[in-house]
Backbone:
């Protein structure tokens, strides 16, 4: 029988107070920060309210800094957005997070964990399954995209020009990633990418994450879109 335990993707979290935690990445989007509404909440003044986000696009994991004050580091290098690989070490504030991709464990060196005490598996927000019973949509009001309307059926929706973006920007100077939409428990959030492009919701600049409401107007990279919930859209 095949051993499926090697296929787990986890974060091994070494907190500054010497305690350790293990978080299994069972969904496509996780936020890390000081506030309690994050999937991984770290109570530390050195950690921003919404510090970083890990997203899964197809089978690839990325970590993105959410304009934090003290920055996000991978293998001691400050990053804006970084593709995670097995045994990468993420540093946030005074805390270390080791990314473990079980599918790559057979060929990657193991991380020594003998010094990690008080280990426990985190559950709660990260363990819940998001089921979109009423997917929302984005309707393009202006700007160059490959469609005029998009159903937001994924947990993570990228807006940009790169090949894996769901909402494809087709303008000449469109950024690879302009913004990210995430769905958690049937609530949608939008956040900017770290590329210097402003993200506006109803004319107000967004830093970190912004919960979306029906008829919110999103503007980024020369494109304006209208957010609609299914319950409010006309049949």
Residues:
């Amino acid at each position: 029988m095949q051993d499926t335990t090697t296929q787990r993707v986890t974060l091994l979290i070494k907190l500054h107070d010497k305690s350790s935690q293990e978080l299994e990445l069972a969904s496509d989007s996780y936020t890390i920060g000081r506030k309690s509404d994050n999937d991984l909440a770290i109570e530390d003044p050195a950690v921003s309210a919404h510090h970083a986000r890990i997203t899964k696009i197809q089978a690839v994991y990325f970590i993105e800094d959410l304009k934090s004050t003290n920055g996000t580091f991978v293998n001691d290098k400050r990053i804006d957005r970084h593709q995670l690989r097995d045994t990468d070490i993420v540093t946030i504030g005074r805390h270390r997070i080791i990314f473990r991709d079980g599918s790559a464990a057979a060929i990657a060196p193991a991380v020594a964990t003998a010094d990690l005490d008080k280990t426990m598996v985190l559950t709660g927000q990260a363990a819940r399954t998001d089921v979109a019973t009423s997917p929302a949509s984005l309707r393009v009001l202006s700007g160059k995209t490959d469609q005029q309307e998009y159903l937001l059926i994924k947990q993570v929706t990228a807006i940009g020009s790169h090949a894996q973006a769901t909402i494809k920007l087709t303008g000449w100077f469109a950024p690879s990633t302009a913004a990210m939409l995430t769905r958690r428990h049937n609530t949608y959030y939008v956040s900017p990418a770290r590329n210097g492009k402003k993200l506006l919701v109803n004319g107000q600049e967004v830093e970190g994450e912004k919960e979306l409401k029906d008829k919110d107007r999103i503007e980024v990279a020369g494109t304006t879109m209208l957010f609609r919930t299914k319950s409010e859209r006309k049949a």
Notes: Residues 1-6, 104-132 have pLDDT under 50 and may be disordered. The first strand starts at residue 9 and ends at 14. Residues 136-229 form a domain with the Tumour Suppressor Smad4 fold (CATH 2.60.200.20).
